[in-house]
Input
Amino acid sequence: MSKQDTLALLPTGGGKSLCFQIPALMQEGICIVVSPLIALMKDQVENLRNRGVKALVVHSGMSANEVDAALDNAIYGSYKFLYLSPERLRTEMFKTRVSKMNVSFIAVDEAHCISQWGYDFRPDYLLIKEIQEYTGKIPIVALTATATPEVTLDIMNKLGFEKPNLIKGNFERENLSYVVRYTEDKNGSLLRIAKSLNGSGIVYVRERKRAQEIAGFLNSQGISADSYHAGFSSKLRSNKQDQWMSGTISVIVSTNAFGMGIDKGDVRFVCHYDMPESLEAYYQEAGRAGRDGERSFAVLLWNNHDIKRLRQIVKVTFPETEYLSSIYQKLYRFCDIAYGDGKDFVTRFNLKDFAIQYKLHAATAYYAIKYLESEGFLKLTEELNNPSRIMFIVNRDELYGVQLKDEILDTFIKSLLRLYQELFSNYVSIDEEFIARVTRNSVAAISAMLIKLSRMSVIAYIPGAKSPLLIFNLDRESESGFSISKESYTKKLDSFNKRIESVISYANQNTKCRSGYLVEYFGQKEWQKCGICDVCIGKKKMQESAGYQQEVERKLIELLIESPRTLSELTLLLNDDTKYYLELLRNMADRGGIKIEGDIIILIK
Output
């Protein structure tokens, strides 16, 4: 509100959306929101519209006419929000229109995507600060739940902040118990968790097939569960999500496609069946438990096979640079694009067809494409399940003339106008099956009438389609003119390795409070031991045993024989709980074994 560039680093569930939505409603003009996930943008826009807030969304799954209409509405239609996917920022259509908008400020969601040292780098995010070349200087608010100190500084630098301005929330979750469990029987461990905790749960797995297998296993054991992943249709995913949100299904077993933007209070546990690839992803996903403030659990199951798999992922995720160059050329050839051409070309893309045509391993080819994306050459969107869309392209008088001439079309047009609003001003998503049920027609008959109206130039009709989109950001270079930067490749590989090893270290260590370990990773230096993670509980049990107390006393005496020590020195040397040592030292002092002078502890010989 004070017009300062601001980075808000807030934990999952910390209200990041409110940080830009409320100020935007309180100010004149429209807020531009840049977000990397099309599905999340659509959900937020729908939620705003349901609350009576005028909001628009523009993404790569829309036609040129739809984008044109949306950007016009952003200029002239008194809208408060314009949600954009980052690749939209490079288009001439957007650059021309944004200069005519009254922009209040720019909100950058998932801001860690702008940093090459973040876990989900998106090169199109680097274009964000260029918006100000067309709007003049306007404030930027960047928001993320997962940024290390290095990434935090990089975000503010890449966005061109006039001065550093970080607002940082507390990353400790007092009600969330972090548990890491080594097990060779993951199904048995998961079943015990699901049966012992009332309320809802989320189980994260790496593969779609495994999501369905584990959901089936839980159901066979009397736990109501369902699977969720990007391979299901949008309608089916929405139905599964609704059943889980309402409590009809207790446990959802999913790939990382589930959970973004979900706000369900009674999630009693989040279980990572497979080890995640970064602590950023782990913290964000684990944070979906216990949003109602009640005791909840974030459980990570692992064994030695998981560590081997994680380290193998590095090799798959980073193919050799020669392979990357060959995939670059094959993609352009696959789309029939000649040298020197292809910039801003958009096409639906089928990875399976691509892999078959060039006899490639699909997973390796996919990671090569994602690496080329990280270098800014192209963009592969998530799988889009776009519903059919229509808009009337005649005025009401012309439409009335059409209705007078054809009784069947007249009835159909009236049904459309009754079922959907704003058909004359915007492209509106429609559901042919729903229209068929309401009008007591077949889906085929509805499609036929929509095609007929389209051919008569009465409506613009875009049939629904389910497919990722491949977007080429640059013209194709020749084999001799194209190369992968070895320096950039090495830096990204090192950064990825570092994230992988941080997850392995988190799982392996059993001396530091889990909560403290995580918040330190995100740069929070001061924290309190949670007392409820597996490490803290384990230490508490040990400390309550007489044998443990005797062993610690022996170690203390050995250290004090060498020289007097401060309490902080003893705690550091023995790597344990300050509060516990304080009580033990007082007990020793009462027995006359030591004396305490100020901060110094001296052994009485």
